[in-house]
Amino acid sequence: MKLNNLTPAEGSTHARRRIGRGPGSGLGGTSTRGHKGAKARSGYKKKIGFEGGQMPLQRRVPKAGFKNINHKEYFAVNLSTLQSLAEAKNLTKIGIAELQEAGLTNGKKLVKILGNGELKAKIDVEANAFSKTAEEAIKAVGGNATII
User: Which CATH code for domain 75-147?
Assistant: First the structure.
């Protein structure tokens, strides 16, 4: 077997229809496009969701809900997590950089400290937001809750 002997498998290839090459081909004249209408024109492109003039689904179904453009997405970190981080790395001040280093947040979202768990160590915490219970718990042990 040589490269010049290779042929495609039986039935795997078909002759391309040569459209618009005169009436003798049987595919001349309108070139299989029919008479007039949008599909007969050059540059025709069917829009996504087009249903032949019927009201499309995305317009039939009512819109629902509300998206607040001022909504802020926070990454939640609990007091118990701060306590375990402070014990593990012997920290007295925890900011976003320390949380990111520990793999608790990514640099994109804002950070909010929540009051779940117990805080025993005196820690100065810097974050974008605090819940009331978290702020009270941090101040109760003598730490500071600073909003960035």
Answer: 3.100.10.10
